[in-house]
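Technical annex, item 7. During the second reporting period the consortium partners agreed on a shared format for inverse folding records so that results from different sites could be compared directly. Each record opens with the tokenized structure and is followed by the designed sequence. A conforming record, contributed by the partner at site C, is shown below for reference.
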């Protein structure tokens, strides 16, 4: 009943009126994980933190957070509970909230050492991966592709559900790769790019954009808002369009492998283009 009442109020609001939709129209209230680098943390060090700061400045709003671990119940306990008004990173097609227009497009990626001979692999069907010890987060889409191609026999799985306050499967995988315990790692693009960039020495990242079977590995990412918040969604869409170049720069600074609609890498020279 409360949700229905909120929707009715939102429909009666004047175009552009955010007083009904937002907790406080003068504050950008962001739903975020307190320890989930490179996306966000309580210190404001993640790229979603930086994007929130950018949007708050452009909207001339104060920035505040509602922190909650991004696991089962995250949307229900934050956005849906009206404790905050936007999730900064939300995959297109997920129906637990309403998505804005996407502000970047990326994919799962293969991380390898320079000189390993695996740097240019763009599909898990590649014969060079046969017999290799490849790290994979269990239960993620590329795990299916690896199973289809017979790579799970020698793979090293890492847990999908973890307590981010004390653990990171991505960081553990990168440490194993650096130490030689595994030959390559398959990670979600933003994690792959960030941890590969901060590793010593830096690691090579290749987006897996040529898969022909199994789940899709390329996704568009936007922001998440409540289903009733149409004025808020329109405003965020406009902010994304007007600030795409600045958004791309933040993402590239964190090593996120950006892709255009033809799966071509977006570098600094083309960062002003829309995803």
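Designed sequence (site C submission):
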């Amino acid at each position: 009943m409360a949700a229905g009442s909120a929707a009715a109020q939102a429909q009666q609001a004047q175009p552009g009126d955010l007083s009904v939709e937002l907790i406080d129209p003068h504050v950008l209230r962001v739903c975020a994980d307190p320890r989930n680098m490179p996306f966000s943390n309580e210190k404001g060090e993640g790229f979603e933190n930086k994007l929130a700061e950018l949007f708050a400045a452009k909207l001339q709003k104060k920035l505040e957070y509602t922190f909650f671990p991004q696991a089962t119940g995250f949307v229900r306990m934050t956005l849906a509970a009206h404790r905050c008004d936007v999730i900064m990173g939300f995959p297109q097609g997920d129906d637990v909230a309403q998505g804005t227009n996407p502000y970047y497009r990326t994919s799962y990626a293969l991380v390898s050492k320079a000189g390993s001979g695996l740097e240019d692999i763009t599909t898990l069907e590649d014969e060079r991966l046969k017999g290799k010890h490849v790290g994979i987060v269990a239960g993620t889409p590329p795990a299916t592709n690896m199973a289809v191609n017979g790579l799970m026999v020698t793979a090293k799985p890492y847990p999908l559900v973890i307590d981010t306050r004390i653990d990171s499967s991505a960081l553990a995988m990168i440490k194993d790769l650096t130490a030689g315990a595994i030959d390559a790692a398959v990670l979600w693009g933003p994690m792959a790019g960030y941890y590969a960039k901060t590793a010593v020495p830096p690691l090579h990242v290749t987006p897996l954009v040529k898969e022909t079977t199994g789940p899709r590995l390329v996704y568009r990412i936007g922001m998440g808002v409540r289903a009733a918040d149409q004025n808020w969604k329109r405003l965020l869409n406009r902010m994304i369009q007007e600030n795409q170049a600045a958004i791309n720069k933040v993402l590239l600074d964190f090593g996120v492998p950006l892709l255009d609609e033809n799966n071509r890498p977006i570098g600094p020279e083309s960062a002003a283009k829309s995803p």
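The CA atoms of residues 1 and 18 lie 21 Å apart. The first strand starts at residue 27 and ends at 32. All partners now use this format for quarterly exchanges.
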